[in-house]
């Protein structure tokens, strides 16, 4: 199996051929705790309880991800969690565990990522219907976008951005495929956005709820694939109701400006983005800044005249003048006090990307971490 998304698509094809037979064969989980009893006993005996599963004197174990082996049977009902338990598990991981401050952020990310993979594994084995999949996948996508930004400056030994992008796109494509399936089954895609916005996941007793925001995720699909034309084709095929959404229009405009090489416009429009869309674009900024500086080396190529570093901050979304000058020096350009000398013969086209200083997203937008996982673009 190359991915859960591929397996889901294969199941959809099988459903169209053998719908009644498949419904009879579908496995229903009977584990009503976040971790099966068998795994709890094994991990406690082997001392494999994670520090994030310990809350004072209490232990809250969450099912860990395990690779399927040729000689193992994972389709066992008492090892699988039903939809309601999976929902509670996702909410617990994102709304409770992510607030822990007693471990480094990369450790927290690895733990939550592993447990979310186990959730997707249970979804796949049980072949949950699309309307259930979307509510489980949406908060996972927020998780990968947010931590992809927060951890972007960490070394590879602590965080792998390629792997994070893989999980992000897998969840995004799976989510959008489910949306398309729901729209097709309903026979009226115009009602899809309203259908989602009117429903909220509120399984556990709490005022804080995970939500399902299709507009946000359609926008993320565009901004997470700025070098890909497929999201733009998808946008053009959308209904008028979806196209009218401000955040979706903004994401499309940014993608078009990027394709046209208008990097200054991309950075100018980024000021209107919501927190998660800003995170998605920010992970692309190093590549955009490299391209823009390369273009400027040809446009402003001169042995004497310089460009003020303050202009670069304004044009290319650098956090500070210091960050702008650091990037220019990294690519071989000469920095004279508060100005940059653009000499195309000095520009290092083979240099690794310069990662800018990461801003505290919660302070920038004056939101909490919980808000990141629960806000809606329509409000």
UniProtKB/TrEMBL annotation:
Ranges for domain SAC3/GANP/THP3 conserved: 34-336
GO BP terms in the entry: centrosome duplication; spindle assembly
Record's GO cellular component terms: centrosome; nucleus; spindle
Name of protein: SAC3/GANP/THP3 conserved domain-containing protein
Organism (species): Spodoptera littoralis (Egyptian cotton leafworm)
């Amino acid at each position: 199996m190359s991915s859960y998304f591929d397996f889901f698509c294969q199941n959809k094809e099988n459903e169209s051929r053998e719908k009644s037979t498949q419904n009879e064969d579908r496995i229903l989980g009977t584990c009503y705790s976040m971790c099966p009893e068998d795994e709890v006993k094994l991990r406690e005996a082997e001392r494999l309880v994670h520090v994030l599963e310990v809350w004072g004197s209490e232990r809250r174990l969450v099912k860990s991800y395990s690779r399927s082996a040729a000689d193992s049977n994972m389709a066992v009902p008492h090892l699988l969690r039903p939809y309601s338990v999976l929902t509670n598990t996702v909410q617990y991981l994102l709304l409770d565990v992510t607030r822990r401050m007693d471990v480094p952020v990369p450790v927290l990310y690895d733990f939550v990522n592993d447990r979310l993979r186990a959730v997707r594994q249970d979804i796949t084995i049980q072949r949950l219907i699309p309307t259930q999949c979307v509510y489980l996948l949406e908060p996972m996508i927020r998780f990968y976008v947010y931590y992809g930004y927060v951890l972007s400056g960490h070394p590879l030994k602590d965080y792998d951005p390629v792997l994070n992008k893989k999980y992000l796109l897998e969840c995004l494509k799976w989510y959008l495929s489910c949306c398309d399936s729901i729209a097709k089954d309903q026979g009226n895609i115009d009602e899809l956005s309203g259908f989602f916005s009117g429903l909220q996941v509120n399984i556990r007793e709490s005022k804080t709820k995970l939500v399902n925001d299709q507009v946000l995720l359609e926008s993320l699909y565009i901004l997470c694939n700025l070098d890909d034309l497929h999201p733009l084709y998808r946008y053009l095929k959308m209904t008028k109701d979806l196209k009218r959404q401000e955040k979706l229009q903004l994401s499309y405009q940014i993608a078009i400006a990027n394709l046209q090489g208008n990097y200054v416009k991309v950075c100018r429009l980024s000021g209107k983005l919501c927190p998660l869309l800003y995170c998605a674009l920010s992970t692309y900024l190093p590549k955009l800044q490299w391209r823009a500086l390369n273009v400027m080396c040809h446009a402003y190529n001169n042995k004497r005249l310089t460009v003020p570093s303050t202009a670069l901050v304004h044009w290319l979304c650098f956090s500070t003048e210091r960050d702008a000058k650091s990037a220019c020096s990294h690519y071989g350009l000469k920095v004279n006090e508060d100005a940059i000398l653009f000499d195309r013969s000095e520009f290092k086209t083979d240099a690794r990307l310069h990662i800018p200083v990461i801003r505290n997203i919660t302070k920038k937008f004056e939101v909490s971490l919980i808000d990141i996982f629960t806000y809606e673009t329509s409000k």
